[in-house]
Design goal:
Strand content: 25-35%
Number of strands: 19
Largest sheet: 5 strands, antiparallel
Bound molecules: heme C
Number of helices: 12
Distance between the termini: 92 Å
Number of domains: 2
Shape: globular
Helix content: 10-25%
Mean pLDDT: 93
């Protein structure tokens, strides 16, 4: 064997062992032919998941002991998955923190990243996405893919089935002591009712400038941050009353709990209008509190110190929950029920210095109904 070839083989071996940096086409490139999808994506949390663009992620990372000790940026795997120095960012005691001047660390959850996922590898701390090697081959579930001059389109029905593609980052994430700080259940998900059908519905407009289709798959990924109107139909409010009291029910039709991230809080607000006066009921707060029992009794902690669930009042997947009010309504009363969320529990705002952040403090309404008592 010639010396040159030997070097080549050794070179290939070492690079594959050292997880050669993967390269991805830029989001900006996709915008040239998929302008509508790009616009939607740019305002979504997938388009703003980096430590530089998401002030809430930034605020939590700022308090994280790994940042303060410049240990490693473990968050990169899901929040900045196309960073060209991923291996370095994930290495223990790496001595680096995310770099705002590194272009690849500003690409968030890139178009090309999602569209190159071919499989998911289950893991204890978190799952891992398997990314195809070819920079310009993107996957579709369609059995008769269309053509593009810029990239190849290949069929991979398996990765879209039951929205497997979403699970690599969303199933679970555990901390150092193996406690799952965040997880997404998939109760009764099917090929027609899953992460993609609810969070990526079909909306008006062509998928590309070269397409004649009238509809495309929405890439704004509605969630607690943005416009909740596309999700309202999955949170249905109802009202019942007896002579003595009344009940407001929340039919939560999602395949996962009413909030997922432990920072969140949901709230049901009910008021009654009677003869021009407003009578307010005590709000029902729904949340999951995580923490540990290092002190005298269990207390809430940030995710990295938690080893247990202290309290969980969230509405489970596909569940209708009744909330009872010990109040006599009478004919003519107008009962207003409002269900919504806080991105950050009011109690955690101070700890993460988010008191002045509008997005973190705002009550985001998903459903509101007015019931007239006959
Ligand atoms: C030169 C134009 C062009 C550019 C640039 C481009 N695409 Fe496309 N893309 C197309 C065309 C044409 C189609 C065929 C379907 C259609 O007309 O909408 C397509 C289809 C797709 C499909 C859908 C396949 C399906 O039918 O389900 C995906 C996914 C995709 N592109 C991803 C990307 C990503 C990611 C980028 C950026 C890295 C990108 N494209 C850049 C032209 C382009
Ligand atoms: C296994 C993938 C994964 C890893 C690793 C990960 N996250 Fe996340 N993170 C997510 C997902 C998925 C969401 C969205 C969850 C939701 O909204 O319920 C999220 C959301 C968040 C949010 C809420 C952001 C907002 O704007 O409301 C914060 C804060 C956060 N992550 C912090 C971190 C920090 C800090 C790290 C690293 C120490 C980290 N995450 C590592 C997957 C991950
Ligand atoms: C039947 C519709 C439906 C399906 C299926 C569904 N969701 Fe949701 N999702 C919702 C609704 C409604 C909300 C608003 C919060 C709530 O009440 O659950 C939501 C909220 C979220 C949030 C924000 C929660 C938070 O705490 O910030 C994330 C992240 C999310 N969904 C991801 C997923 C993923 C990943 C899947 C697939 C495993 C999925 N969803 C499946 C309807 C759905
Ligand atoms: C979080 C993962 C994710 C990201 C990020 C993402 N996509 Fe998609 N995209 C999907 C999924 C899943 C589908 C398929 C939906 C379906 O089968 O109905 C899809 C569908 C498409 C399609 C076909 C649309 C249609 O209506 O036929 C195109 C084109 C596309 N994506 C381009 C892009 C571009 C361009 C970006 C960035 C601006 C992007 N995607 C970002 C997950 C993603
Ligand atoms: C590469 C990892 C990754 C993949 C793959 C992924 N997500 Fe996410 N997703 C995240 C992270 C990280 C966040 C939180 C970003 C933030 O707020 O900083 C998030 C946030 C969300 C949100 C919440 C948006 C909001 O307004 O709070 C929804 C909904 C969501 N993802 C749905 C999906 C769906 C549907 C898929 C599959 C098509 C998917 N995700 C695939 C990492 C991922």
């Amino acid at each position: 064997m010639k010396l040159k070839n030997l070097f080549l083989i050794v070179g290939l071996m070492t690079s594959s062992f050292a997880f050669a940096a993967m390269h991805f086409e830029k989001n900006q490139k996709c915008s040239e032919c998929h302008p509508k999808i790009y616009e939607e994506y740019k305002t979504s949390q997938h388009g703003n998941s980096t430590v530089f663009d998401d002030p809430i992620h930034g605020a939590v990372y700022d308090k994280h002991p790994m940042k303060n000790k410049m240990q490693k940026y473990r968050c990169a795997k899901c929040h900045t998955p196309t960073a060209d120095n991923m291996e370095q960012l994930l290495r223990p005691k790496n001595g680096v923190i995310p770099d705002p001047h590194n272009e690849t660390q500003n690409e968030a959850i890139a178009c090309a990243y999602c569209h190159r996922i071919t499989d998911i590898m289950p893991g204890k701390a978190m799952d891992t996405n398997v990314i195809s090697k070819d920079m310009r081959t993107y996957f579709t579930r369609s059995s008769q893919p269309k053509e593009s001059s810029f990239h190849t389109i290949k069929t991979n029905t398996e990765v879209f089935k039951d929205a497997k593609l979403c699970m690599g980052c969303h199933t679970h994430k555990s901390n150092k002591v193996g406690f799952d700080v965040c997880s997404t259940e998939k109760a009764n998900m099917s090929d027609t009712n899953n992460c993609i059908s609810c969070h990526m519905p079909q909306v008006d407009g062509a998928p590309s400038i070269l397409s004649k289709s009238k509809k495309h798959t929405f890439h704004g990924f509605p969630g607690l941050h943005g416009d909740l109107s596309l999700l309202s139909k999955y949170v249905v409010l109802d009202f019942k009353h007896t002579k003595k009291n009344f009940t407001v029910s929340v039919d939560h039709k999602a395949t996962h709990s009413s909030t997922l991230h432990p920072l969140r809080m949901a709230k049901l607000v009910v008021s009654i209008e009677r003869e021009g006066k407003i009578i307010k009921m005590k709000p029902k707060k729904l949340l999951k509190v995580i923490g540990n029992a290092k002190g005298a009794s269990p207390k809430p902690t940030p995710p990295w110190l938690a080893d247990r669930i202290i309290k969980d009042t969230r509405i489970p997947a596909n569940t209708k929950k009744d909330f009872n009010y010990d109040f006599k309504v009478k004919s003519g009363d107008k009962v207003t029920a409002t269900f919504g969320y806080y991105l950050v529990k009011p109690k955690a705002l101070k700890k993460f210095k988010l008191k002045n952040n509008k997005d973190a403090t705002e009550f985001k309404i998903i459903s509101k109904e007015i019931f007239l008592v006959k």
